[in-house]
Amino acid sequence: MSQSKKKKIVVVGGGTGTHTLLRGLKRYADKLDITAIVTMADSGGSTGRLRDEFGQLPVGDARMALVALSADVDSHDELLRELFLYRFSKGKGLNGHNFGNLLLTALTDILGSEVAAIDAASRILRVRGRVVPVTTDNVNLQATYDDGLVVVGEHEIDEPPESRHTSRITKLSLTPSATINPVATTAITEADMIILGPGDLYTSILANCVVDGFVDALLDSKAKLVYICNLMSRLGQTVGMQASEHVAEISRYTKRTPDFILINNSSFPDDLLARYAEEGNHPIENDCTGESGILVCSDLVSTEAVATIAGDVLKRSLIRHDSDKLASALLQIFD
C-alpha cells in the first residue's frame, strides 16, 4: 500500500463486530483515514433504557466504536478505555448501565446534540479516526417476517422469543423513515474502501443501509465494497442461511454486489460449537461460487476467550473474529 497518501476507509455497522474490526484497523492509522458509520436503531440493554428515559438517540454503538479507536499509548489511555467500557453490576437504577453510555448521555444534555457529544468523547479518548451516526433522526428498526408478522424495535428483533428462532426476515425498514447524516454521505462518497460487517446481518449492518440516502451515497461512491461474513448464525435472523444468502441480502438492500467477500475458513472449538448448537445456531458455511465478488478465504477467528462482564444482560457472541487477522486481510486488498 502506498505510503504517500492515506486511504479513506469507511466501516459500516455497530456493536461487537465493528468494535473488533476497528481495533485492528487502528494499528494502521498512520496509513488509513478511518471513519466508522454506526447504526442509531439500538433499543436494548443500557442504551435502550437511557433512550427511553432521556429521549435521546441510542449511543451504545457509537461508544463501542469510540473505545475501539481510542488512543492506547499509556496507562492513562488504558484507564479511560476501561472507564468507557465499565458496566455497573449493582446499585438500584445503575445495575446493568454502562459508564460510557451515561457519560455520552450527559454530554448530549450539556452540548445539545448526540453528534456534539460523540465529538467531545472523541477528543477525550484521543480517537484515531471518526465515529459518525448514520442518521440523527429518532427511529426504530422494523422487521417483517415470512409469516407476515411485523416486529418493531431492534432489541425485540435481536432477542426473539423461542417460537421465532427459525423465522426469516423478508423486509427490513425503519419507522418512521430516516434521512442519512450528511457527514456519513460525504464519508461514503469519498471513500476508497467501504466495509460492511462483521456483525449481525439485519440489526447491525442492514440497519444502516435502510436509512434514506444511504444506498444513493453507496451507488455514487467509487470505493471498493467489502462484506465480512459473520461466523455464526443468529437466532431469529439468519438460522438456516449460509454465506451466499448473506451476500444476496447485502446486494438486495444496497443495490451493489460486494467487490470482495471475506469468509473464515478455519475451524471452531468443539465445546463452543456444542453450546451454539444447543441454542439452535450453526457456523456460516462458505457456499459462495465467486460470481458475487472476489472471495477472500482465510483464518479470521480469534483464539482469545470471551470474558463475561458482570451486569451485562444481553447475549454476546462466544466465537468472534480476530482484530489483527481482519485488518491484515483488508490491507492486502489495497496492495
Notes on the protein architecture:
- The protein is α/β, with parallel strands linked by helices and 335 residues long.
- The strands form two sheets. The protein has a seven-stranded parallel beta sheet with strand order 3-2-1-7-8-9-10, with helices on both faces. A three-stranded antiparallel beta sheet has the order 5-4-6.
- The protein has a single domain, classed as 3-Layer(aba) Sandwich (Rossmann fold), CATH 3.40.50.
- α1 (15-26) packs across α13 and α3 packs parallel to α6 (114-125).
- The chain is globular and about 50 Å long.
- It has helices at residues 15-26, 45-54, 60-69, 75-85, 99-111, 114-125, 154-158, 182-190, 201-209, 214-220, 243-254, 270-279, 323-334; strands at 7-13, 32-38, 130-133, 140-145, 150-152, 169-175, 193-196, 224-228, 260-264, 294-298.
- It is built from 13 helices and ten strands.
List the helices and strands and how they pair.
Elements: E1 7-13, H1 15-26, E2 32-38, H2 45-54, H3 60-69, H4 75-85, H5 99-111, H6 114-125, E3 130-133, E4 140-145, E5 150-152, H7 154-158, E6 169-175, H8 182-190, E7 193-196, H9 201-209, H10 214-220, E8 224-228, H11 243-254, E9 260-264, H12 270-279, E10 294-298, H13 323-334
Parallel strand pairs: 1-2, 1-7, 2-3, 7-8, 8-9, 9-10
Antiparallel strand pairs: 4-5, 4-6
